[in-house]
Structures are given as structure tokens and as C-alpha cells.
Amino acid sequence: MFCHEKKLFHPVAVEQPNPQYAVLLQEQLGGANGELKAAMQYLSQSFRIKDQKIKDLFLDIAAEELGHMEMVAQTIHLLNGHDVDASQVPAGEIQTHVLMGLNPGLINASGQSWSGDYVSVTGDLCADLLSNIASEQRAKVVYEYLYRQIKDKKVRETIVFLLDREEAHNQMFRDAFNAVQDSGSNQDFGTTKAARMYFSMSNPGPNAFAGNSVKAPAFTK
Questions:
Q1: Which residues contact 97 (CB under 8 A, 6 or more apart)?
Q2: What is the dihedral sign for C-alpha 132, 137, 140, 146?
Q3: Once rounded to an integer, what is the mean pLDDT over residues 111-118?
């Protein structure tokens, strides 16, 4: 069961309207790496999870993502101001000016509608956790791009908060993966010698495909 608490997960504000930036921020409302995608993905993945602790983690983060979605939508609303004026948006989607009366919609920065195809669910906990780690990482990248393109200090404060929470979710999913990494698809497949061999395709030698004399590169700091 979900309930709506009548306050934002974190306060949002803007120094002044900026309709062009509102277009950019639409990406995190209705885009492929946005907040709605994250909420629906984690919620959908949770249905078959047997480990109650991990199931609760998925549901808790999904609920928080809905709170983030509300924050992003409210910020877009404030950035758009209160006048319909498509001339203020020289590039990007203008559907909010001609179809939705500046209501933040479930569309991305190009005006494309949100799609359930963005959501990845496999039923395998290891695979879904890895997908979620990647999702949080991609969301961080988008927020970092958005941060660079706005000077509004109040909007930046909101983005920094959301960036911090994406990082927190990223770490939570990593911790959960570490706890179950020897289960599911990680246990059932990839256990033969071939799964541990490295093939040097960049500079193959006479023993490049023997699996013994060629070692995988070591990535150390």
C-alpha cells in the first residue's frame, strides 16, 4: 500500500523561471533514465523476490523514486512559470505549451512519451541488481550533465540532493548484490573453464586461445 504525504521528499525552489531548462529537466521525469523509470523498475522487480529484506529494499527505493519524481515535476513547474509562451523555448520539446498547458508531462526532453519498454525485469535477482546498479549510474550521469547547464543555485541544490540519493541507492544495490552474487544466474552458468578464460584479440600470440599463457589485464589503482 502506498500513501501520499503532503510534503516533498526534499524542498525545491528556483531563483527565476527558465522554460528552456525545464525542457532539459523533463528527461529526468519521463526519460529512459528518469525517476518514473526507476520507480516502476524496482517496484516491478520486487514481486518475485523471496528474500524479504531485499524485497523491502526494492520497495523502499521505488517509493523514494516516486518522491524524486514529484520533486522533479515541481521544479519543472516552477521553471516554466505561469505563462504559455513557446517562444521561450527555442530548442527542444514544446508539447507542454500546446497540449498540456505547462503541466509537467510523462515525456522526455525531446517530447517522446514515457514507455514501459524502459523497464528491465528478468526475475533473476543478480541480473536485476546489476541492472539497477547500472540504472542508478546512468541517472547520476544525466543529473551531472543537467548540473553543468544551470547556474540557478536553488535548482543546483535540488540536483545535488538527487545526485546524493542516486549514489546512496547505487551503494545499497551493490551491497545487496554482494550478498547474493553466488546465487541465481551467477551460480547456474559461467562455471566452466571457458568462463574464466581471456582471449587476447588485440595482439594474439601463438597461445592466445589456449587459455593458459594469456592473462586478462589487471585493473588496479
A1: 84, 85, 86, 89
A2: negative
A3: 96
